[in-house]
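Kindly inspect what follows.
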Amino acid sequence: MSERVGDDGEGRRGVRAFTPDFLTELFRNPLDPGYADAAAQRAKSGRPARPGWSVGPVSLVLVVLLGFLCAVAYRQTTAEEPGRAQARSGLVAQIKQRQTDTDALSVRADELREEVNRQREAALGGSQAARLRDLEASTGLGRVRGDGVVVRLADGPGGQDSLSGANVGPSQVLYSDLQGVANDLWGAGAEAIAINGQRLTATSTIRNAGQAILVDFRPVTGPYEVSAIGPDSMRKRYESSRSALTMRKVAQDTGLSFGVRDVDDLTLPAAPEPRLRYAEPAVSPSASPSGDDESSGSGTSPSPSGGGR
């Protein structure tokens, strides 16, 4: 059923005419008559159809307070930046000072070790002292001299100092690179190896801690020099090793520095004295009651194992 509009085309404004094509009329006149009347009254009164955003006193205070807080936070951040930089530089200076003190103590320890060796050789005699020197040289506990090679590795343009702690690119020397070089030098016939003056022994470790590389728990920084004393054929054998071929490829691709050179009359220092651990026999369990009775009956004290022959 539909409501007919007058023939003169005049009709009540805003009244929806229900026609058979309901969907078409709905999209043509979607506004409800109540909303249309409210919009007409608002237009007559001069008020805007949609109220605009107005800044009241409370809103203005909030905006000013927010701006003030942002300004204070920015000023505090910029004011603390020099302090953080100064604290960081102070920590770096302390680390370098501690490293200098450690090096000085190492030198003093070497001097005392040499004095102990002289006193020991004087007490042992000629043949026994010579045998002791040979054993110390083979185990890394004695200073050695001879001809050898030096493998030098250095970070490329993307590398950086290990104290800064920032990210580094693929051109950085890794601890595994030093491990591979040392292992292949041993395989090439090296008799003694040192990394940046740190002598390697059978119990030495090469690992990383953050951005630093540790050799026997002592940090070493680039450029890294792996010095080795060995036979004349050592360099030729090392040149064809896996680590040498790999490092040349890495140096070609990333800009990392890698080189091998012969060195005459190379001197390698002694490694620090190891902390030896001695095994002790376990304490035997207490003797059985029967064993105690038999021992006491014979008039002898019981043996540690609870029995006897």
Summary: The domain at 145-268 is CATH 3.30.70.1880 (Alpha-Beta Plaits).
